[in-house]
Design a protein that fits this description.
This protein has 401 residues and is of the alpha/beta class. The chain folds into three domains: 43 residues, no CATH class; 84 residues, Four Helix Bundle (Hemerythrin (Met), subunit A); 201 residues, 3-Layer(aba) Sandwich (Rossmann fold), CATH 3.40.50. The chain contains 16 helices and eight strands. An eight-stranded mixed beta sheet has the order 3-2-4-1-5-6-7-8, sandwiched between helices. Helix 5 packs across helix 16, helix 9 runs antiparallel to helix 16 and helix 10 runs parallel beside helix 11. The protein is elongated, with a radius of gyration of 37 Å.
Length: 401
C-alpha cells in the first residue's frame, strides 16, 4: 500500500546517478497518514509530544489506516455474569432432591411405565394399567378413580398414542394429590407444640431430627421432649439428633411420658422457644391400651398450654403399602391428626399408596367439619437433607419416570 513496503531493485548506475531521489517525500507520508488517523480518532491537530502510547496500540506489522482499536469490548461481556450464576444455584438442591425421589420410586414407576411401551390405546392397556396401580398399592378405590379420570382426559384431549396417555395419567395423579400439598406453619402459637406419633420402626425419631433441622435453618428455637421413655436408648437417640442440630432436650429415663411432655411444654414457654416437638413411643393401632396412652399425652399437653398440641403428625413407613392407610385412619380416629410424614420411599415398590391416602383424605374433607389431611414431608433416605416438603407434581412425575 505504501511505497516504502515495496522491495527495491539492486542499485545501478542509473538509479544512483540522480542526486535527489523521491525518498524524502515518502518519509513524510506516514506522518501525514498518522496525522489523518489521529484526526478521525479525535486527537487535537497539534498533539502533545507523547507519540509512544499511540504507536504502542497499533501493531507494527499492520497498516495504520486498516486498524480499529477495541473500545468497548470488555464491558458487555462482564455484565451478564452475576445473573447467569445466581439462578442455577437456587434450584440445584431441589433438582438433586427430585433425582433422589425418582430413584426411590423407580421400582413403582417401572411397573407402571412399562404399560405404555405399546403402540395402541385399547382395553388391554387400561387392564394392564389397572393391575400395575394395584401392584403399586394404590388401592381398589383410588385405582378405579384414576382410571375413570384418565379415560375422561384421553377423550377430551383426543390422545392418539400411549406416551400421551402416560402424561395424562401424571396429570390425573398430580391433581388427586394436590390437596395434600400444604406447608407446615409455625409461629401462630408460641411455642407451637408438635406431637409426633407412629408405630414402631416407622422412623419417628429420625424424622424429628430431620424436621428439627428444617426448623433450625429457618432460625426457629426448638426444644425436644423425649417422651418415648419405654424403648431402650430412645432418649439417647433423640439426644444425638439434638446435638447435631444444636437444640435443647428435656427427658427423664423411665419416667411417665405424659409428665415428660408436660415439663417440656412448660420449659419451652419459659425459655422463649418457638417450637416444642414431643417424641412418643411406638404404638400398635390394634392395642387399645397403648393408644389410650397417646390420648393421655394429648390431654396433658393441653393442660400445659391451652389449645396445644397445635400439630399431631403421624409418621408412616412408605414400604407398608395399604397398611399405611390403615394406620392413618386408626391414628386419626384416636388423635385427630393434622398432618402426615411419609418415610422410607427409597427403593419401595408401593409408592402408589399416596393415591389411596389422598382419596381417603378427600372423603374426610367431605364430612361435616372435615378437612383434607396434608402430607407435610416425604423422606427417601437417612441423611438430614433426605426429608423434604411434599410436592404433588414432583411426586406424580417421579412415580411415572
Amino acid at each position: 500500500m505504501f511505497s516504502f513496503f515495496k522491495k527495491k531493485p539492486p542499485p545501478t548506475e542509473e538509479t544512483i546517478s540522480p542526486p535527489v531521489p523521491v525518498v524524502p517525500e515518502p518519509i513524510a507520508e506516514p506522518v501525514e497518514k498518522r496525522s489523518w488517523f489521529d484526526r478521525i480518532r479525535g486527537v487535537p491537530a497539534e498533539p502533545e509530544p507523547e507519540p509512544e502510547p499511540v504507536e504502542s496500540e497499533v501493531p507494527s506489522a499492520m497498516p495504520e489506516a486498516n486498524y480499529a482499536p477495541p473500545i468497548v469490548e470488555p464491558e458487555p461481556e462482564r455484565e451478564p455474569e452475576p445473573e447467569l450464576e445466581s439462578e442455577p444455584a437456587a434450584s440445584e438442591p431441589r433438582r438433586s432432591w427430585i433425582d433422589k425421589l425418582r430413584g426411590g420410586l423407580r421400582k413403582t414407576g417401572a411397573s407402571i411405565a412399562q404399560v405404555f411401551t405399546g403402540t395402541q390405546i385399547d382395553d388391554a392397556l387400561y387392564e394392564e394399567l389397572e393391575s400395575a396401580l394395584l401392584m403399586a398399592d394404590a388401592g381398589v378405590k383410588a385405582t378405579a378413580y384414576l382410571l375413570d379420570d384418565l379415560k375422561r382426559r384421553v377423550k377430551q384431549a383426543k390422545a392418539a398414542d400411549p406416551a400421551a396417555v402416560k402424561e395424562l395419567l401424571a396429570d390425573a395423579i398430580a391433581d388427586l394429590l394436590a390437596p395434600l400439598e400444604k406447608p407446615l406453619q409455625v409461629g401462630k402459637h408460641v411455642p407451637t407444640v408438635i406431637m409426633v406419633v407412629g408405630v414402631n420402626g416407622a422412623g419417628k425419631t429420625t424424622s424429628i431430627g430431620k424436621l428439627t433441622r428444617h426448623l433450625a435453618e429457618a432460625r426457629q428455637k426448638v426444644l425436644l421432649a423425649a417422651a418415648d421413655t419405654f424403648r431402650a436408648a430412645a432418649r439417647e437417640q433423640l439426644a444425638v439428633w439434638a446435638g447435631r442440630n444444636q437444640v435443647e432436650i428435656v427427658g427423664q429415663e423411665g419416667g411417665d411420658p405424659a409428665a415428660v411432655t408436660f415439663d417440656a411444654v412448660v420449659a419451652g414457654k419459659a425459655r422463649g422457644c418457638d417450637v416444642v416437638i414431643a417424641d412418643t413411643a411406638g404404638r400398635l393401632t390394634t392395642q387399645a391400651h397403648l393408644m389410650d396412652e397417646l390420648k393421655k399425652i394429648r390431654r396433658v399437653i393441653a393442660k400445659a398450654q391451652e389449645g396445644a398440641p397445635h400439630e399431631v403428625l403421624l409418621v408412616v413407613d412408605g414400604n407398608t403399602g395399604q397398611n399405611a392407610l390403615s394406620q392413618v385412619q386408626a391414628f386419626d380416629a384416636a388423635l385427630q391428626l393434622t398432618g402426615v410424614i411419609i418415610t422410607k420411599l427409597d427403593g419401595t415398590a408401593k409408592g402408589g399408596v399416596l393415591a389411596a391416602i389422598a382419596l381417603w383424605s378427600r372423603e374426610r374433607a367431605s364430612a361435616p367439619g372435615g378437612a383434607q389431611l396434608p402430607v407435610y414431608f416425604v423422606g427417601v433416605g437417612e441423611k438430614l437433607e433426605d426429608l423434604q416438603t411434599f410436592n404433588a407434581r414432583e411426586y406424580a412425575q417421579a412415580l411415572l419416570s
